[in-house]
């Protein structure tokens, strides 16, 4: 099946790896590179904090206070002040993926952002309305990936059925959820590989060329 529109994740796609950034924070601030991700992935209290924050039900201060407490409970001497900024401080813009988005739009492909938000400043430095035809952010919608509803909202805003849309995300579980809805999916690792997959799914050749320039 040929698709005609693309939804991009933010962290780990338009930026460097979120997992690497959290590991760097863990090593520098917690004395354990794996601690933040272990808690966010398997500690019920930490998972609840993240879900409530990404769905807009818990503000930055509440998440920082709660997650700092969970980190301290596991031996890390961390302050809540500025915790989100420190967690994200190692993220850098991926200019090749940003160029890929621009190339798709220039060729008339509807392109949207579909992102789970972390912190009020996580999109700083990105002019999202100028970059995308539609922007869907979990904290503004009250639902987060991998919920079916967030994907549906993103597709609706592009004026496309899920079967016509490709989701690009760095987390495999989010692609599995998209594919269950009938969407195409690309697990992002680097811009050139993603461009090659989009070539195939969109039936195009110019996408890959733009990402390699």
Question: Which key terms come to mind for this protein?
Answer:
alpha/beta, 2 domains, Rossmann fold, 5-stranded parallel sheet, 213 residues
Description:
The protein has 213 residues and is α/β, with parallel strands linked by helices. It folds into two domains: 5-16 and 91-212, HAD superfamily/HAD-like (Rossmann fold), CATH 3.40.50; 18-88. The protein has twelve helices and five strands. A five-stranded parallel β-sheet has the order 3-2-1-4-5, with helices on both faces. α2 (35-42) crosses α3, α6 packs antiparallel against α12 (206-212) and α11 runs antiparallel to α12. The longest helix is centred in the first third of the chain and has 14 residues, at 60-73. The relative contact order is 0.18.
What is the typical, i.e. mean, pLDDT? 95
Would you count the extended β strands for me? 5
CATH architecture of the largest domain: 3-Layer(aba) Sandwich
Which structural class fits the helix and strand makeup?
alpha/beta
Any low-confidence stretches, pLDDT <50, length ≥5? none
Number of domains: 2
State the helicity in percent bands. Answer: 40-55%
Rg from alpha-carbon coordinates:
17 Å
Assign the CATH class of the largest domain.
Alpha Beta
**String of helices and strands:** EHHHHHHEHEHHEHEHH
Strand content: 5-15%
Major sheet: size, sense and barrel closure? 5 strands, parallel
Total helix count? Answer: 12
What does the overall shape look like?
A: elongated
Strand order of the largest sheet: 3-2-1-4-5
Distance between the termini: 28 Å
Q: Looking at this structure, what is the CATH superfamily of the largest domain? A: HAD superfamily/HAD-like
**Can you tell me the CATH topology of the largest domain?**
Rossmann fold
């Amino acid at each position: 099946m040929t698709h005609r529109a693309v939804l991009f994740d933010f962290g780990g796609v338009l930026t460097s790896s979120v997992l690497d950034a959290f590991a760097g924070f863990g090593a520098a601030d917690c004395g354990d590179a794996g601690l933040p991700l272990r808690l966010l992935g398997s500690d019920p209290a930490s998972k609840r904090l993240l879900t409530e924050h990404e769905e807009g039900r818990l503000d930055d201060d509440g998440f920082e206070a709660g997650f700092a407490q969970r980190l301290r409970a596991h031996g890390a001497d961390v302050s809540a002040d500025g915790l989100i900024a420190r967690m994200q401080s190692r993220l850098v813009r991926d200019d090749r993926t940003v160029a890929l988005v621009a190339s798709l739009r220039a060729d008339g492909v509807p392109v949207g952002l579909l992102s789970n938000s972390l912190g009020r400043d996580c999109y700083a430095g990105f002019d999202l309305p100028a970059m995308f035809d539609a922007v869907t952010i979990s904290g503004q919608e009250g639902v987060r990936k991998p919920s079916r509803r967030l994907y549906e909202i993103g597709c609706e805003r592009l004026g496309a059925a899920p079967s016509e849309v490709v989701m690009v995300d760095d987390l495999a579980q989010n692609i599995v959820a998209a594919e269950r809805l009938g969407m195409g999916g690309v697990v992002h690792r680097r811009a050139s590989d993603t461009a090659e997959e989009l070539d195939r799914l969109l039936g195009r050749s110019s996408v890959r060329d733009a990402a390699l320039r």
